[in-house]
């Protein structure tokens, strides 16, 4: 059963994020992208360890649009792109806030693992 979106001001209510959602937010953090570009960015950033299928990507995008984490852009951010079939997505402020909160949560978890010497300080 899909998780309901928390109230807009309840950023922590979105956490923890599904892995695919976090990677999509990270991919959109530096620029607006179309779906295939998101897939390529996630694959490159993770050195191929995370490969989003089209089904996973577009299911997550649909849910993220409904939750207000991302928005579909009316115009292409790439004027050179002539492909009208491409849909471009960008982060909303809520999406950015949720991504930052998740990054901080993950960083805190990593610090706990280091503090207990589960993993070394430098990987």
Protein architecture, described:
This protein is mostly helical and 123 residues long. The chain has one domain (13-115): Arc Repressor Mutant, subunit A, CATH 1.10.10.10. Helices cover 48% and strands 7% of the residues. It is built from 4 helices and 3 strands. The protein has helices at residues 19-29, 35-45, 54-67, 93-115; strands spanning 33-34, 70-72, 88-91. It has a 3-stranded antiparallel sheet. Helix 1 (19-29) crosses helix 2 and helix 1 crosses helix 4. The longest helix has 23 residues, at 93-115. The radius of gyration is 16 Å and the shape is globular. It starts with 18 loop residues before the first helix and ends in an 8-residue tail after the last helix. 23% of the residues are buried. The model has no long low-confidence stretch (mean pLDDT 90).
Question: What is the secondary structure topology, with strand pairs?
Answer:
Elements lengths: L18 H11 L3 E2 H11 L8 H14 L2 E3 L15 E4 L1 H23 L8
Antiparallel strand pairs: 1-3, 2-3
Helix pairs in contact: 1-2, 1-4
CATH architecture: Orthogonal Bundle
Strand tally is: 3
Given this structure, which CATH class is correct?
Mainly Alpha
Q: Helical content, roughly?
A: 40-55%
How is the largest sheet built, in terms of strand order?
1-3-2
Q: Stretches where pLDDT falls below 50 for ≥5 residues?
A: none
Mean pLDDT: 90
Class from helix and strand fractions: mainly alpha
Shape: globular
CATH topology: Arc Repressor Mutant, subunit A
- Count of discrete alpha- or pi-helical segments spanning 4 or more residues: 4
CATH superfamily: Winged helix-like DNA-binding domain superfamily/Winged helix DNA-binding domain
Beta-strand portion reads 5-15%
Topology order in helix (H) and strand (E) letters: HEHHEEH
Task: Give a short account of the largest sheet.
Answer: 3 strands, antiparallel
């Amino acid at each position: 059963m899909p998780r309901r979106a928390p109230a807009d001001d309840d950023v922590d209510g979105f956490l923890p994020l599904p892995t695919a959602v976090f990677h999509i937010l990270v991919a959109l953090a530096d620029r607006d992208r179309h779906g295939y570009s998101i897939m390529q960015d996630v694959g490159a950033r993770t050195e191929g360890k995370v490969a989003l299928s089209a089904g996973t990507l577009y299911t997550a995008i649909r849910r993220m649009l409904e939750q207000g984490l991302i928005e579909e852009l009316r115009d292409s951010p790439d004027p050179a792109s002539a492909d009208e079939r491409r849909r471009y997505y960008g982060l909303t402020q809520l999406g950015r806030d949720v991504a930052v909160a998740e990054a901080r949560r993950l960083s805190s978890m990593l610090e706990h693992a280091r503090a207990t010497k589960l993993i070394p300080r430098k990987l």
